[in-house]
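Let's study a protein:

===
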Amino acid sequence: MAKMQLVLLDADTYFGGMLSAYIRSSEFAERFSFHWFTSRAEGFRFVEETRQPQIVLVHEAWLPLHEALFALKTGCTVIVSETERTGGVLEYPVLFKYQPLNRLLSSVASHYNEYSYLEPLRGSKRSGVITVYSAVGGSGKTVTAVHLAAQLAEHGERTICLSLERLPSRGWYETEPMESETSETFSRLLYYAKTRPEQIPAKLEQLKRTHPTWKYDFIPPLTHPAEWDDIEACDIRRLFEGIVKAGIYDRIIVDADSSDGPLTTELLKVSGLVLWPLTDDVIQLQKSKDWFESRRLRHQQEAEELQAKVRFVLNRFTGTQANDMASYSFKVSARLPYVPEWKNVAQADRMLLRGFADEAAALVRGGGSP
């Protein structure tokens, strides 16, 4: 779709310049054509004369709203305020202008997508779902998933990392609380997967967070393990179809639960690539081999389809191997180094190590080819 006209009516030259510069240099550049007016007369004249759909951000000092905004049929109006508050004026939402700009613009896009009858405002990216999975616990799934997301984001790819573990490693997904509902974020997204999947792209804009250091997006994971029991396989498919449809990510990285059931099966089906961490441990290797053999006995065709997109990643590699991976029918496509400092860690963010997932990221960028 063509770019949406984003019109700012605000006399604040600092804020207007900052927003303009941010849009030009961010992912929002492909979705918004930005126009900024500090003059009431010029701004409202532009709104009246423009025939294309437009989103108008109007500063609260310009209230009461001009009749041109009430006549706006193709687009929406959002009021920006100097103070933090919730609610709105009539049907127009009020947003705090000094929040992080990515959050502000995401809220604007979310409001438009939810309430406009026109084509939703989406990106043009074609997301690929990459799941990090192992049926054996302790293989390093979460560390691999998080570092992979960070590495891809560092290379300029729009990336989101999702935890689908029954007991998620919450320390990797913590950030400064932005609102009281943060702890229920993933639950809210699942609610829409169950009831209104067409709203997932709009809600994703609203619910995603950005890691302050590593710059990948994420959804704070499930808070209560019992919520896992309410998820159905069709919810998994709808969830990822909605995220892909949003068109704002190059990569969707999933930290999967180690369980083997309908949810895992559906997740592996919707994934374009599956990274399976292995360790140089005879017990873990045998368990992994047994899992694949069990799959073949139960669902041979599904097992063959899965095998075609699984790539094995040797984790905690010290430079030498005690086991012959080929004897277990495993071909290693990438290696992750052993990091002795990770034996005892007080904070998860101290485990973020640049370059840790270089080979895994190269594997993903190569479409699964080593």
Summary: The first helix runs from residue 13 to 25.
